[in-house]
Design a protein that fits this description.
six-stranded mixed sheet; ABC transporter transmembrane region fold; 572 residues; four-stranded antiparallel sheet; P-loop_NTPase; Rossmann fold; alpha/beta; 20 helices; elongated
Length: 572
């Protein structure tokens, strides 16, 4: 329930609209009861042929109740829906504020389709919390208790009957159906997440499935997921209809009982027959306010599961709480990096990706990290960026513990080129502009020239995910973006793996010129051009097996020397 409390906390920011929704909801309920009560009384009174002015007064009162009911219902709908939309807006903003700092590592914990289902579907589900769960019981109780108080002036037995009806229709019947609803809703949400995941995988992998002629099998699996979700929705709908039917049946039984009890009291002389029709009409009308309670279990479980699924993604200490105790990296200078006995395993994995890593990277130095695929080179960069926390050991940036630093300040002070870089649908200019605010066209054209992309125009289009760019063009565009950012620490992960040797040398010349006074870490499979590095770290199977300058490692004739000889034999 703590996740529901988060929703309530965000909801209470709209106290004014919530208060007006409840106020006008109560007025609508009471005027509806008053309208039908007056109708019943007028019918009974008219049979006694009262003076014309009595009929006129009662008719005017009916019209007054009718107008008041319509206005109150309109205002209740207006304020309740305005509150709902504002609450949803607050919820989305709050959720995204917590989600954004987690984005680099969150895709290792959730499949993208399931994450999309939570962000879109579960947020939308919470729109029913205020409208269908929070304020209907408040309106119901106030209207019922007011009506019961009114009926006590005519018959304490009828009032007691209505009170029993309130307990049954307002709490007992919904509670009984809520137990079954919980299981159904949980399964429906899991099926929806599975369907979203399968749809996403089919769309992302369509080309490969088509090439390998496995599309039919994937479509069949998708169809099975869709059938499960549809069947779950059908069960959910049948359960909701049955709940509503039972609820209506109980309300009608109570009304029939009021009629029978009232008739008995009239025959016994304990109730004036003039008021019997009024009390029956009250019993029929007051239960209209209990109608939303029939669907409350479904919406409550839907909201509870949606809140749990949603906030489980971002559970933990918020960025605001971290910022209160965290520090920032110094601006405008290169900083040192250290790893002391660092071990790391990805979430959900027992196998250590890194084990007892010792690194000391001096501010302003140039370091290369080399080794075979899967040796943990890229993971080192991700830990230095604080994408993941280390399982064991200490990581220090500029002498400060990485977990004591505001995550944004690390990324702000770092130029990063990853193996896979995202490019947005738009133009070259728009994709370069994300590097830094206030870039001029000349600065962007110079950056393109430096990475051998001067044949591109700033207005040239880029498709979604850069589908119209080659692998080498993507890497060079990512390097240009990093150069434009102009931070003083560079983390480069295979930045030229898809570039030819001639272009690679020109790129490295530009990179080293741009980073001549900065801290630079280069992850690379290739060993050419590493002579200029101040330090070379050799990794294998998640551990550091050698370190030193190029000449030191060659003279040592160890693992690096063997790798260099193999590279020469392949390319010569």
């Amino acid at each position: 329930m703590k996740d529901i409390m988060v929703v309530i906390k965000l909801m209470m920011a709209e106290k004014r609209d919530i208060l007006f929704s409840i106020l006008f909801g109560v007025l609508a309920g009471l005027t509806s009861v008053g309208l039908f009560a007056m109708s019943g009384y007028m019918i009974a009174k008219s049979a006694l042929a009262p003076p014309l002015y009595i009929i006129t007064i009662m008719t005017a009162t009916l019209k007054m109740f009718g107008v008041a009911k319509s206005v109150s219902r309109y205002m209740e709908r207006y304020f309740s829906h305005r509150a709902t939309f504002t609450i949803l807006s607050n919820l989305r903003v709050s959720f995204y504020e917590k989600l954004v700092p987690l984005a680099p590592g969150i895709f290792h914990q959730y499949r993208s389709g399931d994450l999309l289902a939570r962000i879109v579907g579960d947020v939308e589900s919470l729109q029913n919390f205020f409208l269908r769960v929070f304020y209907p019981p408040i309106v119901l109780v106030i209207v019922f208790l007011s009506t019961i108080f009114f009926t006590t002036f005519y018959s304490i037995y009828v009032a007691l009957t209505l009170f029993i009806g309130l307990i049954l229709t307002g709490f007992v019947v919904p509670a009984l159906f809520a137990l079954r609803q919980r299981k159904i809703d949980r399964q429906v949400r899991e099926d929806r997440g599975a369907l979203s995941t399968d749809v996403t995988e089919l769309l992302y992998g369509f080309r490969d499935l088509k090439i390998y002629q496995k599309l039919d099998r994937k479509e069949q699996h998708l169809g099975q997921s869709a059938d499960l979700y549809v069947n779950g929705q059908e069960r959910e709908g049948i359960h909701a209809v049955f709940n509503q039917s039972v609820h209506t049946l109980v309300a009608l039984i109570i009304s029939w009982f009021v009629l029978a009890l009232g008739a008995y009291l009239v025959t016994e002389g304990e109730l004036a027959g003039l008021f019997l029709a009024m009390l029956v009409m009250i019993s029929l009308t007051v239960f209209e306010n209990a109608v939303p309670m029939a669907l409350l279990p479904a919406h409550l479980e839907e909201s509870r599961h949606a809140a749990t699924r949603l906030f489980s993604v971002v559970e933990g200490e918020s960025e605001e709480e971290k910022s209160a105790t965290s520090s920032r990296l110094s601006n405008g200078k290169a900083y040192s990096m250290e790893m002391d006995g660092v071990s790391f395993a990805y979430p959900g994995e027992k196998r250590l990706t890194l084990e007892n890593i010792q690194l000391n990277i001096v501010a302003g130095s140039k370091t290369a990290i080399v080794g075979p695929s899967g040796s943990g080179k890229s993971t080192v960069l991700q830990l230095l960026l604080n994408v993941y926390p280390a399982s064991l050991g200490d990581i220090r940036l500029d002498g400060k513990q990485v977990d004591s630093l505001i995550q944004e300040s690390i990324w702000e002070r770092t130029n990063v080129v990853l193996q896979e870089n995202h490019f947005f649908f738009g133009t070259i200019r728009e994709n370069l502009m994300i590097a830094k605010e206030g870039l001029t066209d000349q600065e962007m054209k110079t950056a393109l020239l430096n990475v051998q992309l001067d044949s591109f125009s700033l207005e040239d289009p880029i498709f979604e995910k850069g589908e119209n760019l080659s692998g080498g063009e993507k890497q060079r565009l990512a390097i240009a973006r990093a150069m434009l950012k102009s931070a003083h620490v560079w983390l480069l992960d295979e930045p030229t793996s898809s570039v030819d040797a001639v272009t690679e040398k020109k790129l490295y010349d530009q990179l080293f010129e741009a980073a001549k006074d900065d801290t630079l870490i280069l992850v690379s499979h290739r060993l050419t051009g590493l002579e200029a590095m101040d330090q070379i770290i050799v990794m294998e199977k998640g551990t550091v097996i050698e370190s030193g300058t190029f000449d030191e490692l060659i003279n040592k004739k160890g693992y690096f020397y063997e790798m260099k000889q193999i590279e020469k034999s392949v390319f010569i």
